[in-house]
Amino acid sequence: MAIATRKEDRTSLALGWEAARANAVPAFILQGAMLAVLISYYLSPACADFLNRLAHYKERHGLAFVVIAAVLAGAIVPELFVIVFFQRGRPRRANLRNLAFTIPTWGVDGILVDFMYRLNAVWFGDVTTVWVVSAKILVDQLGYNPFIAAPLEVLVYEWKNEGFSWQSLRRALTWGHYRDKIVPTLLATWAVWAPLMAIIYSLPFALQFPLFSIALTFWVLLLTYMTNRFAGKIEADAPPALSVAKS
């Protein structure tokens, strides 16, 4: 039993590492782009003015901005990616079915993320000192992600991949599911999001969700890759973007 458990743990760790490694190049590109935005905000008055206008727009429109931005970044843009690059620009009914699932999924996720950012601002303040940024990253990556974000996101995508079976929901409440599915997802999450959160939390609160939305598109592609691997829908050596076309 102990040997089998260790083998399963190694498999989970290997899958998480595989996803992080397979997405290393696009992750570095995304992180570099976000870092450039951060540097430009503090060094370029023109960039700062543009981003501050975006922040004010977000504050004025509140929840509507959050939901629309999350849906665009998490549902519509990835689906357009599939249509353009894998369907030769030809929409299918499957795209509408995907959107019927992803639009509410990422709309709700956007609300949860914005709420978490607001709580962090209340708890630690809307300042960008090293200690405050570090505290927010710890809450985000060691609190929100392991206990809320990763389990819920994997759950809903597996539920979809398994034909909306209630059995998959019951299975999601077991330790074996967490070990085999959530732990690999967390490893991939930390590899991508830990550096991104350092960048996002180094900006004023009003800009954190807009910057998160930019990164969300990449994360949806990565999450789809992970959940399709779990479902056995793609080969072990398939590139991450390929899984989106087959989801």
Q: What keyword list fits this structure?
A:
247 residues; mainly alpha; 9 helices
Structural description of this entry:
The radius of gyration is 18 Å and the shape is globular. The chain has one domain (10-246). 34% of the residues are buried. With 247 residues, it is mostly helical. The chain is built from nine helices and no strands. Mean pLDDT is 81; it is low at 1-7 and 234-247. α8 (205-230) crosses α9 (240-246).
User: Percentage of helical residues?
Assistant: over 70%
What do the pLDDT scores average to?
A: 81
**What is the first-to-last residue Cα distance?**
34 Å
Profile the largest sheet: none
Overall spatial form: globular
Domain module tally: 1
* Helix vs. strand class: mainly alpha
Number of helical elements: 9
List the secondary-structure elements in sequence, H or E.
HHHHHHHHH
Strand content: under 5%
> Segments where pLDDT lies below 50 for 5+ residues?
1-7, 234-247
Number of strands: 0
Radius of gyration: 18 Å
Layout: helices, strands, pairs:
Blueprint lengths: L1 H21 L1 H20 L1 H42 L6 H32 L5 H32 L4 H6 L3 H26 L4 H26 L9 H7 L1
Summarize the structure.
This protein is mostly helical. The protein has nine helices and no strands. The longest helix has 42 residues, at 45-86.
